[in-house]
Design a protein that fits this description.
Layout (H helix, E strand, L loop, with lengths): L4 E4 L9 E4 L3 H9 L4 H11 L6 E3 L5 E3 L2 E3 L4 H13 L8 H8 L3 E2 L3 H11 L1 H6 L20
Helix pairs in contact: 4-5
Length: 149
């Protein structure tokens, strides 16, 4: 993520200079909760032992899986990620497959695909507007066959 440096200067005052730095709080929260997760602690020990596989530790000390954030087993954080991906005005309630494709670019946790499917299945808005997948069939009726002369 890039840092956004803003400068606000009040008109007529030459001596005031302010800088605003925006940092994503969700990523900081993930990073701070990683050491408390026993599964991620084991992965971190494996990395330090030289057999981390696709896992790694970035420059900031956060645990990553194929350059994606390893989300700790914390229900609040995972629910927040799912809500952000599903209910924001820009996402427009994507289905499970689309939501998984979007989230797997930035985040990873075990059983992530199943959690996403369960979350989408519980969404009332999605269930209300979901198109019916079954064909409604009635009784079959034979067509009249004209006699050929």
């Amino acid at each position: 993520m890039r840092r956004l440096d803003l400068e606000i200067v009040a008109p007529g005052l030459q001596a005031i200079l302010l800088a605003l730095v925006v940092q994503p709080t969700l990523l900081e929260r993930i990073k701070s909760l990683q050491p408390a997760d026993p599964n991620l602690q084991k992965v971190r020990r494996d990395i330090e032992g030289g057999c981390g596989g696709d896992f790694g530790i970035d420059a900031g000390g956060a645990l990553r899986f194929r350059n994606r954030w390893c989300v700790p087993e914390n229900e609040d954080v995972r629910k927040l990620i799912l809500q952000e991906a599903h209910r924001t005005p820009y996402s427009i309630h994507p289905g499970g497959i689309k939501m998984y494709q979007n989230l797997k670019m930035q985040y990873w946790w075990p059983r992530m695909k199943a959690d996403i499917g369960h979350y989408v299945a519980q969404c009332l808005v999605c269930q209300q507007v979901k198109a019916e997948c079954r064909f409604l069939v009635g009784k079959l009726q034979s067509l009249p066959i004209p006699v050929w002369k």
